Amino acid sequence: AQSVTQPDIHITVSEGASLELRCNYSYGATPYLFWYVQSPGQGLQLLLKYFSGDTLVQGIKGFEAEFKRSQSSFNLRKPSVHWSDAAEYFCAVAPKTSYDKVIFGPGTSLSVIP
Amino acid sequence: DSGVTQTPKHLITATGQRVTLRCSPRSGDLSVYWYQQSLDQGLQFLIQYYNGEERAKGNILERFSAQQFPDLHSELNLSSLELGDSALYFCASSVSSYAGELFFGEGSRLTVL
Fold it and tell me: What are the φ and ψ backbone dihedral angles of B35, each rounded to 5 degrees?
């Protein structure tokens, strides 16, 4: 079955520390991969996406993600977290032929300690 | 600001009632998607429209219906409301009917009492 797993429900990091949010997926073929962020009271905003090519993709707000086919993973990283990064982060996958089956992971809630 | 507008932002109603949520997509976007977000179910895809036609259905209840109008705005109708329908309903839009980036509105929070 198609699924997206985000093993960490909640993560707390100190401001300035590095961050890695994990995402694993189960899919028939390599899908399109996305990370979205949802700030409190806001809708989801795309951080970055992977379609093909270089497996390390850069996104907005200093985030990057690495696609590892062998591990079916698409982990999100940031070298130095800012207090404003506190939010909910969603990994998502979509088939390469249609967008009707976008699957979102359960989300990881990030808290940042000043 | 994503460019996607949803109204109302908050709605409180009683069980058995009917409500309509409205979504205006980004200028130029032809696809509209509806999602339901709740604590226990996460983010669930409900339905997609592309240029006025239904393109895909997800976990949408029969009590729920949607449409996309010629001006591309969309409405999600929820009827015979139950307590469990309380959730945040998001609309998203995109240029095409597949791939690419979804632009989300800020959501409509529905509370059923």
Answer: -130, 150
Pairing mode, if any, of strands A24-26 and B64-68? unpaired
Question: What pLDDT score was predicted for residue B100?
Answer: 62
CA angle B100/A9/B107 to nearest 5° reads 50
Counted across chains A and B, CB pairs separated by less than 8 A come out at 64
pLDDT tens digits for range A89-100: 999 998 776 655
Backbone angles phi and psi of A43, in degrees to 5: -80, 180
* Residues of chain B falling short of pLDDT 50: none
Q: Is B25 on the interface with A (CB under 8 A)?
A: no
pLDDT above 90 (res A101):
no
CA atoms lying within 13 Å on the CB side of residue A64:
10
Chain B contact present for A54, CB below 8 A: no
Distance from CA of A61 to the nearest CA of B (A): 15
Query: Strand runs (DSSP E) across chain B, as ranges?
Result: 5-7, 10-13, 19-24, 31-38, 42-50, 53-57, 64-68, 74-78, 87-94, 103-104, 108-112
Which residues from B are below 8 Å from A98, CB to CB?
Answer: 56, 97-98
d(CA A91, CA B105): 18
Q: What residues of chain A lie within 8 A of the CB of B55, using their CB?
A: 100
- What pLDDT is stored for residue B95 in this prediction? 83
Q: End-to-end CA distance of chain A: give it in Å, rounded.
A: 40
As a whole number, the mean pLDDT across chain A is 92
